[in-house]
Amino acid sequence: MEKVLFGYLSLAMLVSALLAVFSRNAVKAVLWVLVMFLHQAVLFLTLQAEFLAAVQVIVYAGAVLVLFLFVVYMINLREELRLPRFLGSYPLAFLAVFGLLVLAAAGLSGYHTAQALGILTPEALLKYGHARLLGEHLFREHLLAFEVAGVLLLVAVLGAVVLVRRIREGAV
Amino acid sequence: MPVNWYLWLALALFAVGLFGFVSRRNVIIMLLSIEIMLNAANVALAALGTRMQDVTGHILVFFVIAVAAAEAAIGLSLVVLLYKRFREVHMDEVRRLKG
């Protein structure tokens, strides 16, 4: 049962990612990526990471893809359907990606995991829940990184506002 | 479930995203390919975190999601900028890098 679920999820993620990469229409590509993200949230659930599944649905499916859709609808892409999808050098890109796949598969086929550390055991997950364990370690040991991530998001939002506003003044 | 299967899935997803980023003309789909690659990394990190019973892998997924959100905001505002400047979102048409 578990293997059937994993097989379905991985197949759905791969097929939807391929459809997103190969689709001509940008709106359809965004919606296929949305399908991939929802399947990935379920994949996080199979890894006992329910807080990550919630964050995946809220942040990716709820915020990032809405931003993508907003920009796709703001930009007129009507001539997209007549142009070729790929750059002229895409066989070269295919070769490069194939080389990466071969090298990484050679590295991954001899992979063995190390000894488990034993913080995130199933008993602790049942007793405290994933969100509480993650939050305790996040705010005790990784507090500086958390603050830096917050500053990074603030700078990104301000940078987006400044970038778009400056060109509007220049164009007028 | 062995952790190797999750790692193979992450590798395949990363390859799909990399192919999309290198070969597509449309900037929006190139940014979506970056998101696919970051999600492949997230699959590997979450699988290794669960397998090693260590919470750091899951915390790294959290930070990767934050960085992906920042990247999407900046990248999409650059796409809007590009479209207002050139009326074009295809990368092979944008040859002029100076102002």
TrEMBL record, chain A:
GO terms for cellular component: plasma membrane. It is a multi-pass membrane protein. GO terms for molecular function: NADH dehydrogenase (ubiquinone) activity; quinone binding. Pfam families: Oxidored_q3. The keyword Transmembrane helix applies. It is found in: Cell membrane. Keywords: Cell membrane, Membrane, NAD, Quinone, Transmembrane, Transmembrane helix, Ubiquinone. The chain crosses the membrane at residues 6-22, 29-47, 53-75, 87-108, 143-164. It catalyses: a quinone + NADH + 5 H(+)(in) = a quinol + NAD(+) + 4 H(+)(out). Its EC number is 7.1.1.-. Coiled coil: none annotated. The keyword NAD applies. Belongs to the complex I subunit 6 family. NDH-1 shuttles electrons from NADH, via FMN and iron-sulfur (Fe-S) centers, to quinones in the respiratory chain. Couples the redox reaction to proton translocation (for every two electrons transferred, four hydrogen ions are translocated across the cytoplasmic membrane), and thus conserves the redox energy in a proton gradient. This is NADH-quinone oxidoreductase subunit J. It comes from Thermosulfurimonas marina.
